[in-house]
C-alpha cells in the first residue's frame, strides 16, 4: 500500500497553503486524503468531512492553528501515523510532546518546501 498523507485543515481557496500543498502532493505522486469541516475539493481530491478511524496514514500535514488542534489529539493518536508535520503557524509544543511520547515523529516544517527540495519522503 502506498504511503498516504492526511492534510488536516484542507481548503478549497487557491490562496491557502493547504490548497497548494494538496496540489503539490498530488503532482509529486503522493496519495492524499484531505480533511475539512466543510465540503470542498482540490482538483480530483474531494474533502472528507467525517473522520475515519481506519485511514492508513503515514504523514499528517497540519494546517489548523494550535487552538483548534486539541479537538484532534486523540483521533490523531489513534490513527498512529508515522509522523506529523507542523506547518508554519501550526507549531504546538504541547501536542508535539504528546505525539513524541506516543512514538510518533514530529517535524516543524513546511510541506511545500520539503516537496520543492525533494525532502518530503526523506525525513526521519
- Profile the largest sheet: 5 strands, parallel
Mean pLDDT, all residues: 95
Total individual domains: 1
Q: Tell me the name of the CATH homologous superfamily.
A: NAD(P)-binding Rossmann-like Domain
Report how far the terminal alpha carbons are from each other: 19 Å
The number of helices is 5
Tell me the CATH architecture: 3-Layer(aba) Sandwich
Structural class: alpha/beta
CATH topology: Rossmann fold
Radius of gyration: 13 Å
- Shape verdict: globular
**Element-by-element helix/strand order:** EHEEEEHHEHEH
* Unreliable spans: none
Q: Name the helicity range.
A: 25-40%
Secondary structure: elements and pairs:
Elements: E1 4-8, H1 17-27, E2 31-35, E3 41-42, E4 45-46, E5 59-62, H2 66-69, H3 73-79, E6 83-86, H4 93-101, E7 105-108, H5 111-116
Parallel strand pairs: 1-2, 1-5, 5-6, 6-7
Antiparallel strand pairs: 3-4
What does this structure look like?
It is a single chain. The chain is of the alpha/beta class and 124 residues long. The protein has a single domain (4-116), classed as Rossmann fold (3-Layer(aba) Sandwich), CATH 3.40.50.720. Helices cover 30% and strands 21% of the residues. The chain has five helices and seven strands. It has helices at 17-27, 66-69, 73-79, 93-101, 111-116, and strands spanning 4-8, 31-35, 41-42, 45-46, 59-62, 83-86, 105-108. The strands form two sheets. Strands 2-1-5-6-7 form a five-stranded parallel β-sheet, sandwiched between helices. Strands 3-4 form a two-stranded antiparallel ribbon. It is globular. The model has no long low-confidence stretch (mean pLDDT 95).
